[in-house]
Design goal:
alpha+beta; Lipocalin; 71% strand
Length: 146
C-alpha cells in the first residue's frame, strides 16, 4: 500500500511537471523584427540604431544601443531582419542582449546571429552589412520600445 501511494505521488508530480513544461511554450508567441544597426569603434565600440517589431498585427518602433570592448576598428551598417520568439507581449523584446563576436567586413557582406535577453526573448536575425570593420569583442546591445 505504501508503494502505491508513493507511485501515485510520483506520477502526479511527473504529470504536473510535464503539463507545465508543455503549457509554457504554448503560451509564448512570436513576431517579426527588422533592425538597422550602426557600429563604430576603436578598441571600444558603440552601437546605435532603430527598428520595428511587428507583433499581433501591430507595429512597434524600437531603439537600439550598446557598447563593446575588445579589438574593434572601423565602422559598419547592418540591416537585419528575422523573428523574435518566446514573447507574450511586445515589451518582452526589451532588454539587454549579450554579444560575443569576431569578424570583419570590407565593402558589402552577409551575416546571421541568434541572441537572447534576460526575459527569454530569442532574436534570430540575418541580413547584410557594409562598411569597413574588423572586430573580436564582447559587449551588450539594448533594445527598447520607443
Amino acid at each position: 500500500m505504501l508503494h502505491s501511494s508513493r507511485f501515485r505521488a510520483w506520477l502526479m508530480a511527473a504529470l504536473a511537471a510535464l503539463t507545465l513544461g508543455i503549457a509554457s511554450p504554448a503560451l509564448a508567441d512570436s513576431g517579426t523584427i527588422r533592425l538597422t544597426i550602426l557600429k563604430a569603434g576603436w578598441i571600444i565600440g558603440g552601437t546605435g540604431g532603430s527598428g520595428t517589431l511587428t507583433f499581433h498585427g501591430r507595429r512597434y518602433a524600437l531603439d537600439v544601443g550598446g557598447l563593446s570592448v575588445g579589438f574593434t576598428f572601423g565602422g559598419s551598417k547592418a540591416v537585419l531582419s528575422g523573428t523574435v520568439s518566446h514573447i507574450r507581449r511586445a515589451s518582452d523584446v526589451e532588454g539587454v542582449y549579450g554579444t560575443v563576436g569576431a569578424g570583419g567586413a570590407i565593402g558589402h557582406g552577409a551575416g546571421a546571429i541568434v541572441l537572447q535577453n534576460e526575459k527569454g526573448a530569442v532574436l534570430e536575425l540575418s541580413g547584410s552589412q557594409k562598411g569597413l570593420m574588423v572586430n573580436a569583442d564582447f559587449g551588450g546591445m539594448a533594445i527598447s520600445l520607443k
